[in-house]
Amino acid sequence: MTVTALLFASYAEAFGSDRVELSLDAGTTVRDAVAWLRALPGGAGLPSSPLVAVNLEYATADQRLVSGDEIAIIPPVAGG
Amino acid sequence: MSIRTAIVRHPIDVAAMLAEIQDSANGATVLFLGHVREVNDDRAVTGIEYSAYGEMAERELASIANDAVAATGVSDLSIVHRLGTLQLGEASIAIVVAHAHRAEAYAASRFVIEEVKKRLPVWKREQYSDGTREWVNAHGVVSRGPE
After folding, report:
1. Minimal Cα–Cα distance from B84 to chain A, Å?
2. Average confidence (pLDDT) over A25-47
3. Over the stretch B58-71, which tens digit does the pLDDT of each residue have?
4. Which end of chain B lies in a sparser environment, N or C, as judged by fewer CB atoms within 10 Å?
């Protein structure tokens, strides 16, 4: 299955890109997807347990992904 | 009842927000503004660049407004967060709450800004007088590394 990963701010800078298409096994969890990202070139700059949103809503590390999901890796927020 | 939230890329029109929320049933209106401060962590700040996960930020801001209504009982609330490069003194966020009584209005205003600091997917990069730039978190601390 294919999942789109979005990166922002300091994470996008560390990664060198703000968008990556991941080909993952069906049933892959958020935790596993983050591990995949961290294994990619530039991915070592991402934390092991970042805040993550799936399809615009905050998600847990155990949440399972389905094809077409959009997973966003959220740096420490700084609004206001 | 008037609940309005927006993420904008232009200066926030506070007077328009206040006018929109005016209702003679309300005896108190609280306005909170967050703006760009000239010093952070002993460094001279010249501006702040705000960015966001736009689509999620819009949803999350609306969700914060709804939660504020549920938590405090106010029903007239307007929140605007600005993105882009802001100069010293410019407002990055404006929160207007009106209610029959001041206690609920103050509580809702405080609720909103604290939730924004925790949940809104917005990031800021400070620009300093020496030409450098740094990502900072909600506590004003420079991000030295990802963890």
Report:
1. 12
2. 93
3. 999 999 999 999 99
4. N
- Sorted by where each starts, the structural domains of chain B and their CATH numbers stand as 2-132 (3.90.1170.40)
Domains of chain A: 2-74 (3.10.20.30)
CB-based contact A80 B52, cutoff 8 Å: no
Asked if B121 lies within 8 A of A48 by C-beta distance, the reply is no
Give the closest-approach CA distance of B50 to chain A in angstroms. Answer: 8
Q: What is the pTM of this model?
A: 0.92
> Helix, strand or coil for residue A37?
helix
DSSP-H helix ranges across chain B: 14-20, 54-72, 102-119
End-to-end CA distance of chain A: 37
Q: What length is written for chain A?
A: 80
